[in-house]
Amino acid sequence: MVMDKHHFRRRFIIVCGDCKVSSRLLTCTLPMFLVKGWNRVQINLEEFTTKAFGTEYLHTIRVEVHATCRLRHIYFTNKMNHEINIPIEFRSRVVQSPQYPQNSLMN
After folding, report:
1. Structural domain tally of the chain?
2. What is the domain extent for residue 17?
3. What residues does the CFA20 domain cover (predicted)?
4. Is residue 42 a part of any domain in this protein?
């Protein structure tokens, strides 16, 4: 949920699977298709708010994640970053150190 410059609370609903993009006064529903394994998802809330509602993004009020969604990290930033510029603890791909072989149970 985000707050826009007119102090309206706007909601983005992102659904994995088939759905149509729909935008109403306070709610925008968007489809998201993921591939098997870990996916890195960047959502530009400023751009989404402008395109979906025609108003400026002010700040984020709440992020709600359902229990069936497995996440490694959620973080906010003022600009879109490439993987190499993100701190190691927030990267989506973990580079395995040669001294610690990868556990076969994790594959």
Report:
1. 1
2. 2-101
3. 2-92
4. yes
pLDDT of residue 37: 80
- pTM, rounded to two decimals: 0.70
pLDDT band at 61 (very low <50, low <70, confident <90, very high): very high
Structure-token match 């149970």, residue found:
105
The confidence band for 93, taking pLDDT boundaries of 50, 70 and 90, is low
Half-sphere exposure of 28 (CA within 13 A, CB side): 16
Higher pLDDT, 98 or 6: 6
- CA-wise closest residue to 70 among 10, 16, 18: 16
The CA–CA distances, whole Å, from 17 to 4, 44, 45, 59, 74 equal: 28, 20, 21, 28, 21
- Higher-pLDDT residue of 37, 58: 58
Strands 22-23 and 9-16: unpaired
**Which residue shows structure tokens 């983005």?**
12
- Round to the nearest angstrom and report the end-to-end CA distance of the chain: 35
